[in-house]
Design goal:
Two copies of one chain form a homodimer. By secondary structure, chain A is α/β, with parallel strands linked by helices. Chain A contains 13 helices and 17 strands. β14 (302-308) of chain A pairs antiparallel with β14 (302-308) of chain B, so a sheet runs across the interface.
Chain lengths: 414, 414
């Protein structure tokens, strides 16, 4: 079953804003066996909207229109669908009452143009929107001899997503032929994409009924396996079988068999070993701590750390002797190791991490290029460091260094 | 002049990957007076691609196809354009030679399917791609009685963007009627979007020839003004005039008159005052330090700081007396102020910042809800704190707290 998602709004045709709802909707649609074959972004011009809806009717069975349901003159989705499908709009009395009640409860006056949000397409079912004023609409109709499902959902993510889950997915499940989708996500760290593909392609190309997607970002590889079958158990078995073979091929590059993030895995291992972690960051400037503390409950294993951007703070917080910095430079394995050991002793953590490097674009010297990073890990038994040179701009170097540091912790704890 | 950007690739129809090139291209197109009226994302199916190209030919003058130019069977953009426009493809001898030379220089064998990258549309100009193997193509042709410009550019950002800048923009400038675009970006912090719109709408609606876009994210408002005229000076004057009136209306919420980020502005003021900053972060977990250190050269004014997630580290690194934490709780104005003063004294910075709060989803108590954050700032003269309750999930609370903290520093330095 093929669908098209149409995002309506001129702001999404600027250089600064992107539709993100469609990613959420795609995941939910895939989960019930509906493929997204096209995504279209169109501005708030009625003529353009009508053209886009007509093109979509010619190529898919399920059309989802997001946005353009508000009260302003620019909100034209209802009108455009009516024109494209030759339907009339009627003002729904229950919706008018709901709009008045909403305005009253907010003690706000009710401008008359607000009422256009109560306009409902002939034969459409109204989909309640508890998080906003404009309801969604569901049309199940014949067009050009084919059955078409046309869904109108509000644009703001806080309205669109709950309404889609509560009102659209169950209706689509009932309206469409049953397919079951099985899905697994594997993740691996610090393996180059080309190498991962070389390792895995011989396996996944065998499984023509499982769709494998590889995404790579700054030292992180995410493999998603998707299989759609009439029988849920068969779909799951195919996905699990391929996942098992991929896990074997990826060896210890693999860190997650079910989509968890690297920081989640690090915290999981820390909890398992009843260990605690503290970090001393220079070039990553807080990014490692920030990633770890994204996880709720991180405080159980993560004590905190120091962002030791200046040499003086490397000494004050991570107990790095200033003579060591003078002798080897702030970007050196010696200083990284002293940072890791210093922050561990200073905080009483089981594990101390130290990261120092040159994120760029400035700061390179004759024998220390931009991208050079030293990462050290210290526990009671030993302190060791690795040296890497990452390529790319400041952000990319920091992201790679952060990923490499988290992976180093994971490997120590494994 | 209206354009459509068509991004080709099945991976962009998954829940995990989005086209981002189009934002870059949109900015460049707007800069020469070309509007993006539609964006379409389509998978690697020839039939779908042809349908999308035909629809675009019916509604815009400039079509930009990104991706699908590689050597694999899934790369079908050239073939689909040929079919949609009834053109033939010819294998270009110079491109074949270039592909052989490239393979030889990499000491790689040359698989025969690589040669399809040398296929050029009848009457197209080949656009050199120094960063990849597939060149771009430029078609200036008549279709259905109208002039159409059809551009084929490679998909990978590292190839697409330089090629677009070097080969497409200059050609478009020559091919299209000259328009000059003036642009300004104003930014404001911690003013609610609805309040900003209420303040500004009476002004910007007067300027019907200037397009104003308001984007809001976690306490940051970005206003972009765009004006397209035949005469560059007139366009600039209109934008500057409206910008001036908006700056006045926004009073001290405005922090940037030309698009700089809040962290850039904070570092600018620190430099101006020859002041230094250190931070002690609890609930933001490194996010403030991370944002500041995104700016190259941050080390001139930013000494670093401490991520004091545990109570023990609040004492060890920010000199917060443990009795104070016992008495008032870790999330309190007293502890925030002690953190700010402690980190300032500990590091010798001119300014010390302390942030403590409950990011959620857990950790709330009867009188301390999720989202409660205390932010304190300390200099030699005084230590003061503010209390805020932010709404939303963990990430949003942390983002708002970070933005509020940076804004507090800005206001102290102003």
């Amino acid at each position: 079953m093929k669908s098209e998602i149409i995002a309506v709004g001129s702001e999404m045709l600027t250089p600064w804003r992107q539709d993100t709802n469609s990613l959420y909707l795609t995941e939910k649609l895939n989960g019930i066996g509906v493929t997204v074959a096209f995504k279209t972004i169109v501005g708030d011009r009625r003529k353009d909207l009508v053209a886009v809806i007509r093109a979509a009717l010619g190529r898919v069975d399920v059309l989802i229109l997001m946005g353009g349901l508000g009260p302003t003159e620019d909100d034209l989705t209802r009108e455009a669908v009516a024109e494209a499908l030759s339907l009339t709009l009627r003002r729904d009395a229950a919706q008018v009452a709901a709009l008045h009640a909403r305005a009253a409860s907010w003690r706000m006056p009710m401008p008359s143009n607000n009422l256009k949000q109560a306009d409902v397409l002939e034969s459409a079912i109204v989909l309640p929107n508890p998080n906003g004023s404009a309801p969604g609409q569901w049309l199940d109709m014949q067009f050009g001899g084919y059955r078409k499902l046309v869904l109108l959902v509000p644009g703001p993510p806080s309205e669109c997503r709950p309404l889609f889950d509560a009102e659209c997915i169950p209706r689509l499940r009932t309206a469409l032929p049953t397919r079951s989708i099985a899905r697994r996500t594997l993740r691996a760290a610090m393996i180059p994409e080309s190498q991962a593909d070389k390792l895995l392609a011989p396996t996944y190309t065998e499984y023509t009924d499982v769709e494998t997607t590889i995404l790579a970002h700054a030292g992180d590889i995410q493999l998603t396996l998707l299989c759609s079958k009439a029988d849920a158990a068969v779909a799951q078995q195919r996905v699990d079988e391929l996942a098992g073979r991929m896990e074997e091929a990826l060896e210890d590059w693999l860190y997650s068999s079910d989509g968890e993030s690297l920081e989640q895995i690090v915290l999981y291992y820390l909890g398992l070993r009843q260990a605690t972690l503290a970090v001393a960051e220079s070039c990553t400037g807080g990014m490692i701590a920030e990633r770890i503390t994204q996880v709720p409950g991180a405080s159980r294993s993560f004590l905190g750390g120091a962002v030791v951007y200046s040499d003086a703070l490397k000494t004050a917080f991570a107990q790095v002797p200033s003579s060591l910095i003078l002798q080897h430079g702030a970007v050196s394995s010696e200083v990284a190791e002293a940072m890791a050991e210093g922050i561990r002793l200073r905080t009483g953590a089981t594990l101390g991490l130290g990261v120092t490097g040159i994120a760029g674009p400035n700061g390179a010297t004759a024998n220390k290029p931009v991208g050079l990073v030293h990462i050290a890990l210290s526990d009671a038994a030993r302190t060791e460091s690795i040296e890497k040179t990452f390529h790319g701009d400041r952000e990319r170097v920091r992201e790679f260094a952060t990923q490499q540091a988290l992976d180093l912790i994971r490997r120590r704890l494994m």
